[in-house]
Hints:
The longest helix is centred in the N-terminal third of the chain and has 25 residues, at 3-27. The strands form 4 sheets. The chain has an 8-stranded parallel sheet with strand order 8-14-15-16-17-18-19-20. A 6-stranded mixed sheet has the order 3-2-7-21-22-23, covered by helices on one side. The protein has a 5-stranded mixed sheet with strand order 9-10-11-13-12. With 559 residues, it is α/β, with parallel strands linked by helices. The protein has 2 domains: 97-219, Roll (Diaminopimelate Epimerase, Chain A, domain 1); 227-515, Metal-dependent hydrolases (TIM Barrel, Alpha-Beta Barrel).
Amino acid sequence: MKYFDKKVIALAFIFILYALASCKKNIGIADLIITDATIWTGTNPSHTVQALAIAGDTILAIGTNEEIENLKSTSTKVVNAKGKFIVPGFIDTHVHLMMGGNALLSVELRDANTPQEFAKRIANYAETLEVGQWILEGNWDHTLWGGELPNKVWIDKYTKDKPTALYRLDGHMILANSAALKIAGIDKNTLKLNSGEIVRNADGSPSGILKGSAMNLVLNKIPPMPEMQKFTALKAAQNYLLSNGVTSVHDVDSLGTYNAAKKIMASGALKIRMYLAKPLNRWNQDFGMSTENNKWIKTGLLKGFVDGSLGSHTAAFHSDYTDVDGDSGFFITSEENLNQWISEADKTKFQITVHGIGDRAIHTLLNIYEHVSTKNGIRDRRFRVEHAQHLAPEDIQRFSELNVIASMQPYHAIDDGRWAEKLIGAERIKTTYAFRSLLDANVKIAFGSDWPVAPASPIDGIYAAVTRRTLDDKNPNGWVPEQKITVEEALQAYTKDAAYASFEENRKGTLEVGKLADFVILSDDLTKIDPVEIRNVQVLQTYVGGEKRYEKATKTSGK
């Protein structure tokens, strides 16, 4: 080879190396770097890294401090995490977003533990409203004062000119005052309903308690929410969720959410990501909801109901409740309607999720899912059962066989565990909130809160799933302890598998190169501390798309 040829080849080789180095440098510029952390990536149960680099809203690289340091430029912001624990942004797979936002702005009854306190809070709140304004949400829990259901006479004198419809915390029972009952046309002559109940006083007059579909007689009379109130509620909701480390939600009743969220997104003020549902029973109506699948808003989910809830005796069981002979609950929606709606909607490629609480309701729903899958042909449907609380043992394996996701809310286990055995007995509670049994059967579990029915706190949810210590601290070793799961399993249910539950596992749910930079900095390593201490772990910072959207205020000492 001639000297000239060798020189040309050498120069070309040097040029190629320079070009590759330049490309690497340009590709590798990070806008934000997080160092000195314990980062649980979620890619496998034990995988942690030390540092994270972000470009725009996307993860650029993960690795050691030294590896990530090479991606820094003079414009890169560097955050030293000081050894704190980082996890993917939590995904809450079951919230009532608009209700939750409004609950933050309304009367809070969840911890009212006497009838007197219950009535006092409503009276005080009523004084802040104009004549004719509705009093809504509330989320009361009658078990805190011994189990007596509230009555309209408790609040009528405080709310006579303000219609009132206050939810029990499970959302399947309301207390309506006389003003609301009058607007709805409910009196002692109102006929009995097949899929709901108007609870009555001894003289036959309505007590104000409405269960199941009877609630709709009042709820359908509530005037539409003004647009500005929707904006206020949504902004309050997203700030609350971010403070709990929640970066994405599945909103299971989104008709009041979609248009408001779109406008907030257009203004640049949307801070959490949303998967929005329409009602299954009106699946072929568009409600102005277009097909969306962007980083912030996704549609395509349909939400239906089979039954109600355990606490209101509206969950449907194979056998009677143990505390009321002849009462096994009831279906809110008939099997025939469910089968028709799910089959038709499935053909148009909607994802279907249905609320199922009692073992008979869940068994029936699994039968329908199996029938529809066979009838409409094989595809990746990812059918879901919302709550999946009380399972017949023989149905646990069917979740796996049918690839049905159990969308569950672990906080309910430590709440309902205070009183559930009185309602369904010692045998049925063995497969109540059966996290361990489902995971052992290779079932995908996605965790959420059911907010505002329960706090939208994944930390509380992880504590509940791992310890199963009831809220009254009467089960220090766990309520039905054989159903406990590990911290890593609970984390996966709030991140990786929650993303899978919305067909978004390629976009978020784990901290990997190319995925959205949604993550949370926690005060303690959840995998290292005593599980009992998990409930004390604090959310220090929440990042969405690489931007810090929440930071816990630090206390400052004063003289």
